[in-house]
Amino acid sequence: MILKLFLTFFKIGLFTFGGGYAMIAQIKEYIVAKEGWLTEDELTEIIAIAEATPGPIAINMATYVGYKKGKALGSAMATLGVVLPSFIIIFIISLFLEEFMNNKYVSYAFVGIKSAVAFLILKAGVDMAKKIEKKPLPIITFVIVFAAMIILDLLSISFSSVFYIIISGITGIIVYSIIGIGKVDKKKEGKQ
Question: Number of folded domains in the chain?
């Protein structure tokens, strides 16, 4: 299991360009669909947690999945697996950086890669949007955060995505605490 964790995350790290969000589609394919190590709901929750915690999302996700399947050693091997390909590639590139960056074919390749990365990130976003509970609070929160992100981006105002997550989490706690209190009060009234 430990070797399989390492190899699976090594493959994900090797064939994904564009960072953690671009990796979500690959992680879903390998971890949810092929291996069955997580459900789609667990993946959605882990994405939210990985985004809210310090560090790159892909590393946080690899660490969690590795721990779930192989405790501390599994966690270390999954994390090493997802990081090692980038480290090796960057090390090799650094040896030939100037020649590499001046190569017109490398420039052309990066134009194509950027397009694919944009699609992968969009696909991950659409997949997550489909999973939103069809209740008022999640939908309203999604719409407000989406609108705020677009408006702040258009106005060139820097606002960390972590704050969106924290504010949304606090809103959820407050609203569902109030709803929960209301449900408890109704249950008490019904028993009397």
Answer: 2
Rounded Cα–Cα distance for residues 12 and 7 (Å): 9
Residue 89, domain extent: 1-131
Q: Are residues 37 and 80 in the same domain?
A: yes
String of b and e for 60-96 (b: at least 16 CB within 10 Å)? bbbbbbbbbbbeeebbbbbbbbbbebbeeeeeeeeee
Q: What is the pTM of this model?
A: 0.58
Q: How high is the pLDDT of residue 192?
A: 55
Angle at 139 between CA 155 and CA 162, to 5 degrees: 50
Residues with pLDDT less than 70, the chain: 17-20, 180-192
Distance between CA atoms of 145 and 125, rounded to whole angstroms?
A: 13
